[in-house]
Amino acid sequence: MASLNLQRNSEVFYSTVDLINGAAVTSMTNENTWKLEVLAGFAVTSSAATQDITSFESGITPDRSQQRFNTAINPVDWNFQVYLRPTGVNSGATAPATGGGTSQGGNVIPLADWYMWQALVSNTSPSSGTAYQSVWKSTGGNAGRLLTTNVAQTSGSHSTRSNFSTATENHIYFKLDNVVYQVSNATVNQATVDAGIEEIATVTWAGFGTTMRELTGHPRDNAIACFGGVNNAGTTLTANSNVSELIANSGPSYHPFNQMNVAGTIGTNSFIKNRLSQIEFHHKATASASDEKFTFPVTSLSFDYNNNITYLTPEEISALNEPIGQFTGTRAVTGSATMYLRAGELESSGFFRNILNDSRTQSAQTSNANLIIGGATSGDPQVAFQLEACQFEFPQIATEDVVSMTVNFVAQEPTASKGDGGEVKIFAAKSVA
Predict the structure, then answer these.
(1) Would you state the pLDDT for residue 418?
(2) What average pLDDT does the chain have?
(3) Residue 1 pLDDT greater than 50, yes or no
(4) Residue 301 to residues 298, 313, 385: CA-CA distances in angstroms?
(5) Where are the alpha helices (DSSP H) in 35-171?
(6) What is the CA radius of gyration of the chain?
(7) Scanning 19, 206, 270, 363, which has the fewest C-beta atoms within 10 Å of its C-beta?
(8) Phi/psi at 30 (nearest 5 deg)?
(9) 116-130, 261-275, 375-389, range with greatest mean pLDDT
(10) Dihedral sign computed on CA atoms, order 209, 214, 220, 224
(11) Which domains does the chain have, with CATH numbers?
């Protein structure tokens, strides 16, 4: 009897290498292939568009038949959730780098899933195939940052553009125990950060692909040689991961999710405790009023970035059509925060009063928000999302045992960068200075 395939034994990998179309397994290295430590509940779905042809005649013995046709393969849907884990690789340098906060390859890669964030906001692939192409930048202090504006190449960071018409396409491998599927030409459409107060910070990733195919024969053996498992001959192979960019690989390898080479030393990536999270809102009651800063502890906090990608699929008859390309839509950067209603000028009730007293139809250019996921004191891991032009909706009051308030907000392009993106700056630090 064939063995069952268990979710508990499944793994997910992201790569620029296309095994199903003949790429050699030796092409997989820790600089172009990464493992994602996904949580339970991940999904990948391939479906088809259908057409029903029916007959409906009069008479005693009418033709009442129905025929169904598969007319097109829909874009593959995939999603999974990972922990938001800072690495400490926050500084760029010339390879081989060994200074504090650098990677041996010289790139700025401050989160375990930095390549997913890059595929979300940048037109630059995370790898050339033989080396990282990170667009994360160095900054003052100890925080690596990702900007959603046009950025020129600098030391440790490649050039990037956030206003792109088509998203970068790579490949996701779902190893469901011992059955391996490849989602080809995978695009990253959406990231949702959840900072529930009793939880560890997570990111839910969602996107599409053009096709989903099972790896069989030689391509499957190639995948197993890198990812581990039982190959076609029945031999159990150990997964081949490598965290050091400069150590020669004896064969194919991938980069693990929970470790990073920081300044020549292998370290474990940090988990973020949401209980330490807080927000900073800046809002003026009128355009001429003085800026007011409101700082709140939160009971829940979320952030969402969506590329609104759509696909083109032909409609030829007598053919099972496949998607031929994708385009990005309007970039939507939104968030939501819930906090207790507290009295005070710079407390949540003061912020609520400001919003109620603001008669402007749009106040984004004089308002901003900083979402601090994690701690804000020395030694705490942290990821912060800075929204420099932020439109707040009217907060909603919830009359429970403790009265609370929820506010939704939308990030917009600041006046200084309109047409060039700039809705959000992402800062990531393994240890706040």
Answers:
(1) 84
(2) 91
(3) no
(4) 7, 37, 12
(5) 114-121
(6) 24
(7) 206
(8) -70, 0
(9) 116-130
(10) positive
(11) 10-46+75-126+157-268 (2.30.110), 274-429 (2.30.110)
